Amino acid sequence: MSINDTTVNNGSQPSDDRHKAIVFIGPTGVGKSAIGQAFAHSRDIGFVDSDAVFVERFGSIPAFFAEHGEIAFREREAIIVADILARPPFDGPYVLSVGGGAILNPDTRALIAKHTVVWLDTELEFVLPRLLGQPDRPLLTGDVAAQWQRIADERRHLYEESATLRFDASTGSVDELVQRISLALMG
Ligand SMILES: Nc1ncnc2c1ncn2[C@@H]1O[C@H](COP(=O)(O)OP(=O)(O)O)[C@@H](O)[C@H]1O
Ligand SMILES: O=C(O)C1=C[C@@H](OP(=O)(O)O)[C@@H](O)[C@H](O)C1
Ligand SMILES: [Mg+2]
User: Fold this and answer.
1) Considering all CA atoms of the chain, what is the largest pairwise distance in Å, rounded to the nearest integer?
2) Which residues are in the CB-under-5-Å shell of ion ligand 3?
């Protein structure tokens, strides 16, 4: 199965462009953190990753999952995203990359709907080599391929409903993807 490169919805736009975020969502391993950061750098705007903020505040994500469980993680993740969007650490537009499960929270979905939401989409075959090399994702235990596919399938409708723009991030370098996303966003 292949994914069409881009799909643009007429998503709601924030009233105040000064604080407009470009929010990267999508399944774990697709490149939200790497591409979000490179995209921000290319446009000389701020970048924040909600997982990085989580680690600053609460330490390692796998250790937190092991000690407190997913529900506790989700509660803190939702608060972090809400804090960033309410009080952005930058003046002007900025990029926010969230964790793959952030969109599970309905309040988070409502908050990001006021911004430009870029869904980085892909399929298992493209991310699996990366995931196998990075055993730091607490939901991907045991059969990593089966777990990734199950989680991606469960969340797909939430990515779809949240996205302003869907982008096939399966192939291409980070810099190439940044250029393609820029073109798709700016026209
Ligand atoms: N297009 C790409 N090409 C090559 N490596 C990539 C690409 N996108 C991401 N990566 C690498 O894959 C890994 C997972 O990317 P990451 O940005 O952490 O994904 P996410 O935040 O969506 O989980 C990182 O090591 C990253 O550098
Ligand atoms: O998919 C998920 O539920 C998660 C994805 C991770 O972020 P990335 O999507 O950036 O890997 C991180 O938030 C945590 O391990 C949970
Ligand atoms: Mg990430």
Assistant:
1) 46
2) 32-33
For residue 5, being part of any structural domain is answered with no
Residue closest by Cα to atom 6 of ligand 2 = 99
Q: What is the pLDDT of residues 140-154, one digit of tens each?
A: 888 999 999 999 999
Q: What is the CATH number of the domain that holds 140?
A: 3.40.50.300
Q: How many domains does the chain have?
A: 1
Boundaries of domain holding 133: 16-178
Tell me whether 0.95 is exceeded by the ipTM.
yes
**Residue at 4 is within a domain:** no
Q: Identify which has the larger pLDDT, 76 or 143.
A: 76
Q: Which atom of ligand 1 is nearest to the CA of 169?
A: 1
> How do strand 165-168 and strand 6-8 relate by DSSP bridges?
antiparallel
Report the residue among 33, 137, 141, 153 best suited for mutation to probe ligand 2: largest number of ligand atoms under 8 A from its CB: 137
